[in-house]
Amino acid sequence: MTGSEAGITESNEAVTGQTTRGFHTPIDKIIEAIAARFGGEKAKELERFIKFAIVGITGAVVDLGLLALLQVTFLPPAAYISSPLGFSLATLPLNMEIFAIPLHFNVAVATTIAFIAAVVSNFIWTMLWVYPESRSRSKRRQLVQFAFISVIGWSARTLWITLMYVSIGAWIAPMLEPLIQVFNATFTLDPVSEKSIGSVVAQLIAMVVVMLWNFFANRYWTFNDVD
After folding, report:
1. Does residue 72 lie within any of the structural domains?
2. Residue among 62, 58, 224, 21 at smallest CA distance from 141
């Protein structure tokens, strides 16, 4: 590139606000080395997949963190039925399971809010870090495509979680209780915490499947303008 061409490029970048340099992190060289070692002719694709997976992990932190915060504050996954006398039936020395009702709407709303926050985070990182060379399409269009793909994943994920979190919690929460008590000696499993654990585990399973869906769908549709 000549000096004049470089000047034109810099001028265009100044006008459009776009740059092909992308966003660099301290782990870029490590990712590139791993991709070159194991990717062969598909090293660049492997590099993008690794970066996308890391973006997915950061999105999962946002997703799970916000979900947990919402469930312990405004949107609990279950609630106890109060007696007409004004005290909680859960305090009685009976099987509390029959007095705790799952709040499916709360779970759906909480997972949706967490999902939206994660989608915004993931799109920004994907645009700036995974596919910085994708410049032939408007970012608004790519955001719509990215969101559409994410909504498909969200629909499947929310349906899965809503249908399965109670069963998963009943199955896995008793096994996790001793592990949780290692970090929190006062923890005691109850119907609410059981369903909360179930929703988190169901979400973890869904996130792995949805991450794969998101990567391949976005690679071959949203960002198919890159080589």
Report:
1. yes
2. 224
Q: What is the largest CA-CA distance in the chain?
A: 84
| Residues 66-79 pLDDT 10s | 988 998 888 888 77
Give the pLDDT confidence of 84-132 residue by residue, as tens digits: 444 444 454 444 444 567 788 888 888 889 888 988 999 999 999 999 8
CA geometry: angle 5, 8, 10, nearest 5 deg: 110
Please indicate, yes or no, if residue 18 is contained in any of the structural domains.
no
Classify burial at 150, counting beta carbons within 10 Å of its beta carbon; exposed 0-12, middle 13-18, buried 19 or more: buried
In the numeric block, the tokens 């007409």 are attached to 84
Measured distance CA(118)–CA(192) in Å, rounded: 25
Identify whether 6 is part of a domain.
no
Q: Whole-structure pTM over 0.70, yes or no?
A: no
**Could you please report the per-residue DSSP string of 137-188?**
S-HHHHHHHHHHHHHHHHHHHHHHHHHHHHHHHHHHHHHHHHHHHHH-TT--
Kind and range of the H or E element at 215? helix 191-217
